[in-house]
């Protein structure tokens, strides 16, 4: 069993993934900005947990986080780069700051974590990197140009890294969810409701109907796809859709 590190582990998809990794027997390090949320998830885990609070937009955060895990447990074998943020704005109202935030959190932070993780993985001859991207890594969507660009970018990073590492025992994949039932989607529902003059239940139903299966994805359904990437050495360089049929590929 491996040492796993999950970013954005305090809620939503990160929490669900940490739970699954723990049930599968991995030691799980939990990373996010809010220590209280990490502690709450740690208390739910089946096995060993380590909370390492950090803001991953700090350039030094990956060194701090990986160093802390290595001192306790040794090299990280499974990196789930899940932390992310999604802000919406029409293209012409997308400020430089919004653009920068999307790229820093969703693209640069995963890049720095992968760069820090890979030497330990190649030294062991085994490693698994899974990035939680999005359905908008595969198709563009109105109102989220910066978020879509960051997620397309991170899928490019995954594909390049997978090719570079293909003979090392390290696989690199992305999972690409549609709308998942998490706090991030609660925020999307609230914004949509305000924009369209709908109450939260109506806005939520609208979002659910946008997906062919007619419902939101459960965070555990995304976590199951992450675990499939961890368990299968022949899957690498993929962006696995967990989107209720939105993108067919
Ligand atoms: P969420 O509920 O908002 O959780 C995001 C997590 O990321 C939080 O635990 C947050 O923790 C952490 N985080 C955000 N910024 C961070 C930073 N600078 N440093 C460290 N941690 C940070 O989101 P989610 O729905 O579970 O989404 C997880 C991933 O899936 C994201 O990459 C998102 O883009 C992607 N995704 C989500 C959906 C969806 O419908 N929900 C769809 C497609 C893709 P703190 O606030 O404590 O730092």
In short:
By secondary structure, this protein is of the alpha/beta class. The protein has helices at residues 12-23, 35-44, 61-73, 96-124, 145-165, 183-196, 200-209, 219-231; strands at 3-7, 27-32, 49-53, 78-81, 127-132, 170-177, 239-242.
Second-tier CATH architecture of the largest domain: 3-Layer(aba) Sandwich
Q: What general form does the structure show?
A: globular
Strand order of the largest sheet: 3-2-1-4-5-6-7
Helix content: 40-55%
Could you name the CATH class of the largest domain? Alpha Beta
Return the average pLDDT rounded to an integer: 97
Helix/strand-derived class? alpha/beta
**Quaternary status of these chains?**
single chain
Low-pLDDT windows of residues: none
Q: Write the CATH fold name of the largest domain.
A: Rossmann fold
Number of strands: 7
Distance between the termini: 32 Å
> How many domains?
2
Q: Strand percentage, roughly?
A: 15-25%
Number of helices: 8
Taking the sheet with the most strands, its summary is:
7 strands, parallel
* Cα-atom radius of gyration: 17 Å
